[in-house]
């Protein structure tokens, strides 16, 4: 017998258009009928009914536990809440330094920033972009002794993530359009059309900038397979701050009748990173100084006690702070300072930078707008609020060299959201790391900050600062 909702004990297929309550009821009833028969239960009718009753009791206990209790945090996450810190820069000393002591490595097969555990980007000798594939051609150099091997991406994305093109090893035509020298080449992976994402733009731009201006010199060219109109206001302002706005060459993927666009030597900025692209505090200070100078913003350190707290909500889209006014009341009560409400990601690049560089205490929802904290005052405090069942350490990682404090605050179960209550059965760790549709659903929900936990975090900060600790 095959039941459409219950394939195995406790394994539920993705539901169709039904309410959550009905889905649970159908699944529950189906399993009661299906499981004893799937187990080839024999015996009398009374024994069969007893088995069904026992199974019903066990399922009821599990359902009650899943739906009406808050899942506990995984141990690793609980530890990070007690002592927030980044995983960046925690490896050994297997990195190179230039004559200024800056940490990087431009190898035969990769460009790496920071230590052995940090971010690397693949380098290829001979690569061609066409309408249907990205060709890796020519003999690739061997990895040197002690060099870290960086895998090539299996695919790259273009046209606002609407086109996915495989990366394959194939021959290239010498008559195609070839670009010589070391080229830094980016695609539009993680940059969907109409949804600017400064965080993922920074993932590509900042490592390329460091290689072009900080490590290698002016003989490096920057290439982006994107339309200039697709680039966000933030990214254009960032490029302008480093005199690169008119130096980036934008490319359209060739049509089937056009020659491929080829690069003799290229570093690819496409795949996901650990967001550890700032290797050290000296590099972040250089980056911040250039940006603040471009925007005519004074460079200051944070002070304590703070004179104002800022709640910086997202200006649109999901993951807005649904209880930000209650959070504001709590901040004002504990810190005894005025609380200002702002919307992040609005205005010009310099407007966005100024919002994070003129205050010392912030509460923000998780989101790409937080990339601006690269330019925050050293010593500033940022409390990042996450949606229920969702968490990552991206902000910890890319700000690890800024000198700011980042404290995660887990969100509460949104009131009245039965789907999220149903997903509670997975718990934080399983939902985020193993069940993609649970993770993607959770990240799109409004955020309700836990005021009780927020008060504990602020009291801990006050205690540490009063003892000269940070």
From TrEMBL:
Alphabetical list of Pfam families matching this protein: Glyco_transf_61
Domain of life: Eukaryota
InterPro entries the UniProt entry points to: Glyco_transf_61_cat, Glycosyltransferase_61
Start and end residues of each Glycosyltransferase 61 catalytic domain: 167-383
Swiss-Prot/TrEMBL keywords: Glycoprotein, Glycosyltransferase, Transferase
PANTHER family the record matches: GLYCOSYLTRANSFERASE
Protein name (Swiss-Prot/TrEMBL): Glycosyltransferase 61 catalytic domain-containing protein
């Amino acid at each position: 017998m095959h039941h459409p909702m219950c394939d195995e004990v406790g394994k539920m297929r993705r539901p169709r258009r039904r309410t959550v309550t009905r889905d649970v009821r159908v699944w529950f009833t189906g399993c009661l009928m299906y499981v004893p028969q799937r187990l080839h239960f024999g015996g009398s009718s009374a024994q069969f009914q007893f088995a069904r009753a026992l199974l019903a009791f066990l399922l009821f206990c599990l359902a009650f536990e899943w739906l009406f209790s808050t899942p506990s945090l995984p141990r690793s996450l609980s530890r990070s809440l007690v002592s927030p810190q980044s995983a960046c820069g925690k490896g050994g000393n297997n990195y190179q330094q230039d004559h200024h002591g800056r940490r990087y490595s431009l190898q035969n097969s990769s460009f790496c920033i920071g230590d052995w555990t940090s971010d690397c980007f693949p380098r290829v000798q001979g690569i061609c972009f066409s309408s249907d594939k990205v060709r890796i051609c020519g003999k690739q150099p061997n990895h040197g002794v002690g060099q870290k091997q960086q895998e090539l991406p299996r695919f790259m994305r273009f046209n606002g993530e609407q086109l996915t093109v495989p990366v394959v090893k194939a021959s290239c035509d010498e008559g195609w359009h070839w670009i010589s020298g070391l080229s830094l080449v980016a695609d539009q992976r993680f940059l969907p059309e109409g949804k600017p994402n400064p965080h993922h733009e920074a993932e590509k731009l900042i490592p390329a900038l460091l290689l072009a201006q900080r490590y290698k010199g002016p003989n490096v060219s920057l290439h982006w397979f994107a339309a200039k109109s697709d680039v966000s206001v933030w990214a254009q302002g960032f490029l302008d701050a480093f005199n690169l706005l008119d130096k980036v060459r934008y490319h359209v993927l060739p049509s089937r009748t056009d020659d491929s666009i080829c690069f003799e030597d290229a570093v690819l900025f496409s795949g996901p990173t650990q967001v550890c692209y700032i290797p050290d505090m000296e590099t972040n200070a250089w980056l911040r100084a250039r940006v603040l100078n471009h925007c005519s913003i004074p460079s200051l350190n944070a002070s304590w006690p703070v004179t104002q707290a800022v709640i910086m909500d997202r200006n649109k889209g999901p993951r807005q702070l649904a209880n930000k006014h209650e959070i504001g009341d709590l901040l004002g009560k504990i810190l005894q300072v005025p609380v200002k409400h702002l919307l992040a990601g609005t205005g010009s690049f310099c407007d966005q930078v100024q919002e994070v560089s003129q205050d010392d205490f912030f509460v923000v929802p998780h989101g790409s707008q937080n990339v601006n904290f690269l330019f925050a005052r050293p010593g500033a405090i940022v409390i990042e609020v996450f949606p229920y069942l969702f968490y990552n350490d991206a902000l910890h990682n890319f700000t690890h060299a800024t000198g700011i404090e980042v404290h995660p605050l887990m969100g509460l179960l949104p009131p009245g959201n039965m789907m999220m209550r149903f997903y509670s059965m997975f718990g934080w760790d399983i939902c985020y790391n193993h069940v993609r549709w649970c993770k993607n659903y959770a990240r799109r929900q409004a955020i309700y900050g836990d005021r009780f936990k927020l008060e504990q975090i602020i009291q801990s900060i006050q205690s540490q600062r009063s003892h000269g600790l940070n």
